[in-house]
Structure to design on (352 residues):
């Protein structure tokens, strides 16, 4: 008997240059009357000051909408924002910023049942369109919370080009991670631990392929920015269709989670940690890791763990701890006998 699942899709997704200056017109085309609703713009202080003209224009277009600034993606801030939205009968939440701003705005909009508009200023990971928000709880622990995907996503490639290149590289790493994530998903489905959705599986694979086999080598070009934007958004939609993060998160993400949990002082973005993990995961899966290494070299991603202060001992320890970060998530690691010699060999390959 087939199991049918319900999922949502954004009403609007626009990727182009200079579109933030036409946010109101774009949204009115898809959702007539949206600009007449009470709104709030969520961003961070730095972006509010750096792009004051754009922030002011968007706020004016939405009836002089107030600005709510966040400094971190934590549960307390998201809850305070949701309370404000509910108490003041705000109907539209506009997230303008990177991951922490968007995760905060998305979750607050979800629990207050407001329309959520996503205006990303970086392409660092696929959370911009995913049905999840990653928020810091008490202390350092982070929790992935389910929520609705954006009603509209507008990506201004001109704005993205102004973001630090490291953030774009992080987005590339997160996208490449789907190479091993979908393989792990199939393993979990075979073991009866997950339900495989063919459509979501295909979308996630296509996201990865669109970057791994992209002819454009300049990550600052409009063509590449558009390709990466679409890949990250479609990755989020694959998760929405699947009803879980499985299309985009496998053993390579367990590696990244182990860094975050056990070595929080290591300075590496989530996407780059995923890219490092992807090399090890491909090895454990018995697949060609040179594909990953060559693509990362092409885009300028540094896969040498030493660059990030990850020693040989630390690298081995991270892999040993990785399965325990999510014991419920079946992956290749469940069927792999990790040994120091093998992990050291992978470390050496990544140093070349």
């Amino acid at each position: 008997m087939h199991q049918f699942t319900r999922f949502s899709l954004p009403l609007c997704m626009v990727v182009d240059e200079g579109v933030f200056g036409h946010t109101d017109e774009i949204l009115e085309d898809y959702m007539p009357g949206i600009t007449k609703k009470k709104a709030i713009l969520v961003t961070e202080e730095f972006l509010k000051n750096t792009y004051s003209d754009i922030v002011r224009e968007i706020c004016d277009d939405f009836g002089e909408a107030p600005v709510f600034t966040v400094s971190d993606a934590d549960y307390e801030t998201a809850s305070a924002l949701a309370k404000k939205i509910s108490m003041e009968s705000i109907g539209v939440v506009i997230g303008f910023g990177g991951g922490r701003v968007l995760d905060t705005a998305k979750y607050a909009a979800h629990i207050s049942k407001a329309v959520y508009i996503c205006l990303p200023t970086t392409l660092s990971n696929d959370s911009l369109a995913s049905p999840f928000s990653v928020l810091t709880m008490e202390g350092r622990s982070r929790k992935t919370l389910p929520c609705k995907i954006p009603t509209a996503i507008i990506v201004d490639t001109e704005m993205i080009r102004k973001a630090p290149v490291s953030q774009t590289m992080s987005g590339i790493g997160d996208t490449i991670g789907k190479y091993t994530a979908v393989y792990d998903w199939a393993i979990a489905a075979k073991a009866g631990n997950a339900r495989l959705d063919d459509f979501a599986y295909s979308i996630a694979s296509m996201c990865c392929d669109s970057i791994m086999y992209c002819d454009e080598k300049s990550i600052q070009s409009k063509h590449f920015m558009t390709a990466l934007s679409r890949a990250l958004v479609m990755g989020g939609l694959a998760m929405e269709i699947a009803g879980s993060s499985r299309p985009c998160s496998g053993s390579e993400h367990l590696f990244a989670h182990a860094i975050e949990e056990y070595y929080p002082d290591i300075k590496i973005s989530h996407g780059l940690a995923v890219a490092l993990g992807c090399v090890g995961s491909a090895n454990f899966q018995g697949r060609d890791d040179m594909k990953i290494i060559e693509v990362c070299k092409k885009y300028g991603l540094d896969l040498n763990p030493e660059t990030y202060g990850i020693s040989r001992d630390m690298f081995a320890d991270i892999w040993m701890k990785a399965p325990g970060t999510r014991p419920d998530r079946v992956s290749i690691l469940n069927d792999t006998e990790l040994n120091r010699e093998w992990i050291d060999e992978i470390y050496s390959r990544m140093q070349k």
Observations:
- The radius of gyration is 20 Å.
- The longest strand covers residues 92-97.
- The domain at 165-351 is CATH 1.20.1090.10 (Dehydroquinate synthase-like, alpha domain).
